[in-house]
Write a structure and sequence with these properties.
The chain is an alpha+beta fold and about 260 residues long. It is about 30% helix and about 20% strand. It has a three-stranded antiparallel beta sheet, with no helix packed on it. Strands 1-2 form a two-stranded parallel ribbon. A two-stranded antiparallel ribbon has the order 4-5. The two termini are about 35 Å apart.
């Protein structure tokens, strides 16, 4: 669902919040009554709970009061919510309440964080990690000269290895800020820290890689079909579409 928040934030927010409100209503119905079997018209719960994956990109533009119960309680109805944002301050600024923003953050079980430039956002991950004991080995060498001319010992030397234990954070916010492109840290299942490295696209030895962005745009323009007027010609849209997605009425005689 494209809301075009960049062009019109007000309309995108209103439509997005309405969508989330509908999803909360559907989640409540599934949670209370289950999923009815459509084959026999039974009202009894049927089968396993469905899995509904909701991906919200730039969700700070859409989040509102409707989003909080969707995170709190919709998991019991099979909803899996994945949210994407640049910084957590965007979410706090959108909600206008830091406590409610913390309530939203507390309902996400998995957190994947790429390179961020805001320390407060990086600390959302680092503050959840325990401190670790680090052993430090220190080598000490020393020499003492003898000032007694009657002594047969001219100097004394010593070498020591000292081991000390100190507590340090497992991961710092500065390390998240300095992450290379394509790498990330992930907090899985609430407490397992993983280091991720994602392969980046490369045009080397790839026969299906387009020559340029212009070629991609031309191919998209060639195959693009709008359904703005689907309600006017339903017989063409629903019954006259060929295998390649082009209306039969517009196809040439040679196919």
């Amino acid at each position: 669902m494209g809301l075009d928040a960049l062009t019109d934030t007000t309309v995108a927010s209103a439509v997005g919040n309405s969508m989330f409100a509908d999803l909360v209503s559907v989640a409540g119905h599934i949670y209370k009554h289950g999923v009815a079997d459509p084959k026999n018209g039974s009202n009894q719960p049927f089968g396993a709970m469905p899995t509904i994956s909701l991906h919200a990109d730039e969700f700070n533009e859409l989040i509102g009061d409707e989003f909080v119960p969707l995170l709190n309680k919709a998991g019991g109805a099979g909803f899996q919510v994945t949210a994407y944002t640049q910084t957590w301050s965007d979410v706090e600024a959108r909600i206008g309440n830091r406590a409610k923003a913390g309530q939203v953050a507390g309902n996400f079980n998995t957190m994947i964080m790429l390179r961020v430039k805001e320390l407060a956002t990086a600390e959302m991950l680092t503050d959840q990690l325990p401190k670790v004991e680090v052993f430090t080995l220190m080598s000490v060498s020393g020499v003492d000269d003898s000032s007694d001319p009657t002594s047969g010992v001219d100097f004394k030397s010593r070498n020591e290895d000292r081991i000390s234990v100190s507590e340090l954070p497992m991961l710092t916010a500065a390390e998240l800020v300095a992450l290379p492109k394509g790498q990330a840290f992930a907090m899985l299942e609430g407490g397992q820290l993983w280091k991720l490295r994602m392969p980046l696209p490369d045009a080397k030895n790839d026969p299906v890689m387009p020559e340029s962005l212009t070629a991609i745009a031309n191919e998209m323009e060639r195959t693009y079909i709008t359904n703005d007027h689907w309600y006017r010609v339903p017989e063409i849209w629903w019954h006259g579409v060929s295998d390649v997605g082009v209306p039969v009425s517009r196809a040439s005689s040679d196919g």
